[in-house]
C-alpha cells in the first residue's frame, strides 16, 4: 500500500465531491460523483454506498477503483488508484455508518467502500503529467 503525502492529503481534504472511476469485468468504464467520503488514514479512503448501482457491481467484479482530485482551491491534480472492497458488516462499517449518518441522517448507508491506496499519479498538465508520484 501507498501512504499519501501532505500535498495529496491536503488536496483530498479540500475536495467536496470526488469522481470515482470503476470498470466492469467487460472493461466498461463508469464514473460517478462521491460526496460521502473520508480519508480514514494515509493509506485508506472510505466512501459510503448510498446509491451506487454500476459502481457497486464493478467493485464486486474487479475490486479496483480510482479517484480524481482537482478543482478550485486545490494545488495540483492527482489520480489515486487502489484495491477496493464493499462491506456491510463489522466494526469499520459501523464506524463509517455512524460518522456519515451523523451529518446526513436520511441516507441509506447500504455499504462501505474501502479503497486501499496502491498508486498516486500527477495529472497536472505540462512536464510530469501522468508521472507516478507515490
Automatic annotation (TrEMBL):
It comes from the Archaea. Residues 5-121 form the Pyridoxamine 5'-phosphate oxidase N-terminal domain. It comes from Methanomicrobium antiquum. SUPFAM superfamilies: FMN-binding split barrel (SSF50475). InterPro entries: Pyridox_Oxase_N, Split_barrel_FMN-bd. This is Pyridoxamine 5'-phosphate oxidase family protein.
